[in-house]
């Protein structure tokens, strides 16, 4: 028999498995989950029958909510699975602005499909010259645009996205995972009838139902039918279908949780912006990107570890191989409950204040933690 090693495809060998932070912390603000959950109850289901392969009731309910035909909706075990199906049915090359959600690249690599990363501009918006050049040169079959973008939190300019949809001769997937948190719920959904090459991704993961693993692809009926061919039968289990229907039935409770997160986000943004040596970036999502100015002597790694010591886990971004990355010294913090956010800010102030005091031990200031001593970019 051949060595097991030799049986693994080269593109799969080159991959590193998606790492989910395993640190145990009481306050978890690292994965963009909602801090508010819903009791899932015990649906009266028996275990011997397969689930509805078409998730018909759920697609009907969502179709009514989004004003689209159920035939224009494809259900996935999380939107991650739908990205996988898109790459299976359509393939690459895939064009991805960077930095963005890492699964577009990871899934392309695992399926051996080519991907092109186009850096975002200084405002984390689409660099249109670079996008046009890449579209002209590489003729991507798929373009993934996360809007609002993870992990930067901003929404690419509406007109820029329209221009890309109109210029692309392949498909444009606008991933609206964070759309519920964006101003007035801004969405591309009404534009679906106008553009046959436009697809939307939605997920229930960020609005309090991450445990269910439910994502949806929305688009042209014929296109959805083609992608549906590669979907595994029974991909969404019966408990998830049933539980999602029950929660979505009570729309006001879901909306109340979203509003609470938005309100807390805006408060958290103001507090983070007021911290010494921290630059926070405005967010349309349920998380905030912020950058640490390390000129004050505090390193990103140190801040990250100190927060964990206080039982608070956030997401550390940037490179880890010495190659410069636009997100070096950046973090992504998920908006938690009022109490969790307060604990995070308290811990941040303490860590920053201590470093600052050590540095300026002669200084008599005591509340220096609130002083902006390095606001300017290096
Ligand atoms: C979290 C996230 C997803 C993943 O959603 P699931 O439905 O949980 O698989 C998709 N896209 C973006 C941009 C995300 O941040």
Cα-atom Rg, whole angstroms? 22 Å
What is the helix fraction of residues, given as a range? 25-40%
Average of pLDDT: 91
Poorly predicted ranges (pLDDT <50, ≥5 residues)? 361-378
CATH architecture label name of the largest domain: 3-Layer(aba) Sandwich
Structural class: alpha/beta
Q: Report the count of strand segments.
A: 13
Distance between the termini: 58 Å
The helix count comes to 12
Shape: globular
Can you identify the CATH superfamily of the largest domain? Answer: Type I PLP-dependent aspartate aminotransferase-like (Major domain)
Explain briefly what this protein structure is.
The chain has 378 residues and is an alpha/beta fold. The chain contains 12 helices and 13 strands.
Report what the structure shows.
The chain is an alpha/beta fold. The chain folds into 2 domains: 49-249, 3-Layer(aba) Sandwich (Aspartate Aminotransferase, domain 2); 253-376, Alpha-Beta Complex (Aspartate Aminotransferase, domain 1), CATH 3.90.1150. It contains 12 helices and 13 strands. The strands form 3 sheets. It has a 7-stranded mixed β-sheet, with helices on both faces. Pyridoxal-5'-phosphate binds next to helix 4.
Features:
single chain, 378 residues, alpha/beta, Aspartate Aminotransferase, domain 2, Aspartate Aminotransferase, domain 1, 2 domains, seven-stranded mixed β-sheet, globular, disordered C terminus, binds pyridoxal-5'-phosphate
What order do the helices and strands come in, and which of them pair?
Blueprint: H1 4-7, H2 10-13, E1 27-28, H3 56-66, E2 73-76, H4 79-89, E3 94-98, H5 103-110, E4 115-119, H6 128-138, E5 142-146, H7 158-167, E6 171-175, E7 198-203, E8 215-218, H8 221-228, H9 238-249, H10 251-273, E9 278-281, E10 287-292, H11 300-309, E11 312-313, E12 315-316, E13 330-334, H12 338-359
Parallel strand pairs: 1-11, 3-4, 3-5, 5-6, 6-7
Antiparallel strand pairs: 2-8, 7-8, 9-10, 10-13, 12-13
Bound molecules: pyridoxal-5'-phosphate.
The site of pyridoxal-5'-phosphate (PLP) has 12 residues, from helix 4.
